[in-house]
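[step 3/7] fold_predict: job queued, chain A
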Amino acid sequence: MSQKIYIPVAIDLYIYSLNKMNDIHWFENSLIRVIESQIKTGLPSVSNILHKPIHNGLLYQIANLCFYSKFGSNIALHKSMSDLDSLYEFIYGYSVFLGESNLKYHPSRVEFFTLLDEIVELDPNKYVPDLEKNKFLQKVDDILFELQSAYKLELEMLRLLYIQDTQSRLFNDRQLCEYISFSLSSYYGFKGFPKRNSDSLSMIERCSWPKDIELALYERESGICPKCERAFSSKLTKHIDHIVPISKGGTNDVVNLQLLCEECNVSKKDKLMRGETTIPKYFDRSFKRKIKDIDFQKKQHRLSK
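[step 4/7] structure written:
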């Protein structure tokens, strides 16, 4: 069976993740706690978070946290009647995915799609007594529980696909990664030590880079040094650089890495430098013309005085 994510849900999760990262309370109370709990486990697969570019690194943790926060298994605890649009999209996303398997043979199928109709017809602005509201949401939970039980492995695969999609969307924007890295360094302080009274994070040290990390960075940068905008080649060698230097609280997580040519990497040293976005300026020519027109109008205005 070919697993596919439902794009409206994927976009919704990505936007939700952006909003969460701009929430200082979520950053400190959720993300930082997860990071420190991972470090304290002592397990190499997760305790090296921030110290090494592991697969379950910072971007994975952000996407995973946001997935469970937004689409927790107990819908009644997380959703209100005003959230029906998001709830509808997620339930419909379930049906799209499960419809590719054997959902049509599952006993909950008729009840499931009847519920979809009820959601569409329900007016979220209309007053609904708490008792009726709780019964409605409990019904949603019961059906989702049946489907989750019947398709546990399929839904776990779907969860991973949504996390992978969100993780890739976040990584694709270097400026966003830079924002996360600066936020993290401002929290942990210089040389990788927490500003709070905690010994959960020892000093970050330089490490070697897996080939897949270098390839991911190369693809994000489109084979071009983001500083001098020259294409990498045999003559213009590439180096993995820390966006926020280790000496200033940077980490070895992929969110804090970029690819620079040797010359730009040497000139940057351990300085903090704001980078350019990796998102192409698709309408650059159009905007340049508009800016040029405004400059011309400004000159005409000065001359007329």
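[step 5/7] annotate
Residues 7-168 form one domain.
The CA atoms of residues 66 and 295 lie 44 Å apart.
exit 0
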